[in-house]
Amino acid sequence: MYTTEEFAEQVITDVSATLSGVMTSIGNKLGLYKAMAFAGPLTSTELSQKLGLAERYVREWLNNQVAGKYLTYDKNNQSYELPDAHVPVLVDQESPVFLLPALEVAASLWHDEEMLIKVFQTGKGITWGAHNHKLFCGSEALFRPGYKSFLVNDWIAAMDGVSKQLEQGALVADIGCGHGASTIVMANAFPKSKFYGFDNHAESIKTALVRIASEPAKSNTVFEIIDAKSYPTIGFDLICFMDCLHDMGDPVGAAKHALKALKPGASLLLVEPAAGNNVEDNINPISRLYYAASTAVCTPCSLSQDVGIALGAQAGQWQLSKVLEEAGFVDITKIAETPFNIVIQAKRP
């Protein structure tokens, strides 16, 4: 247990991080981190001249970053440096640990604060589309690097015989595809297969169509506005739920529809936020982040739909497996995990 003084220090740290998150976002959008990456020590004057920014603002920003240990400071020549080890987190948009898009998600929640207060009082839900637009772009940017790094080479590769099937030509559905990040990654990797991205949010599908237009996979990918219990049951070889099943009002119903839409013996791939099975297993910074997102986005999204089970973003393997088991799936197995995800394969009998 904390003493009062220790707890006050924890809250000060949280408030500091909240305010500094704005500074981090500014550093990203103005290219400050990018300009410092692998550039060695720079003074505030050198950095501001490099980017054409006002030196006094840049200096104050740099000092905030040093206080937060994002940068290092040399008092002898009053220079600042971005450690190489921080570049994958702050600069490299293809890195699976590029975390700055999470700040856009956080910004969307501040925009939605009044709406969230109301649902706490009424118990009602909030549809996905009712949130601030920063949520949609932030979620895509946050998830995309992980999909690029792990989806094909690790997660699908861990599924029994699925990679070979996709290489030869298969039929795949990506449910709740959003802006299509996961669909496009798979479709580019397996050009002989046909991919369908389904989502009930019209604006997301509109964005997915823009994204696919410049990709090689445009010839083997289709995006369609449709919900998780209405898409065609045409005998898919693989159906994927990427970070979305817990958002659904009726995850069992969605899983039952997927079972019906799969060929006999075919597989479902379920990617969900990493979590233990119990609250006491989830006392850590990543779960704290996910519980916050779940309170503000995932739980109200589910409650806005029919049934409204509200699994939440920290459902854990046991609860997710029970959903799939109730839907009729067999051979339900955790095949991979990262600090941010749990990955489960299940099969239609």
UniProtKB/TrEMBL annotation:
Domain of life: Bacteria
Methyltransferase domain residues: 169-283
Any GO BP annotation: methylation
GO MF annotations in UniProt: methyltransferase activity
InterPro entries found in the cross-reference section: Methyltranfer_dom, SAM-binding_MTase, SAM-dependent_MTases_sf, WH_DNA-bd_sf, WHD_Rv2258c
Keyword field: Methyltransferase, Transferase
Occurrences of domain S-adenosylmethionine-dependent methyltransferase Rv2258c-like winged HTH (ranges): 21-90
Record protein name field: SAM-dependent methyltransferase
Species of origin: Paraglaciecola hydrolytica
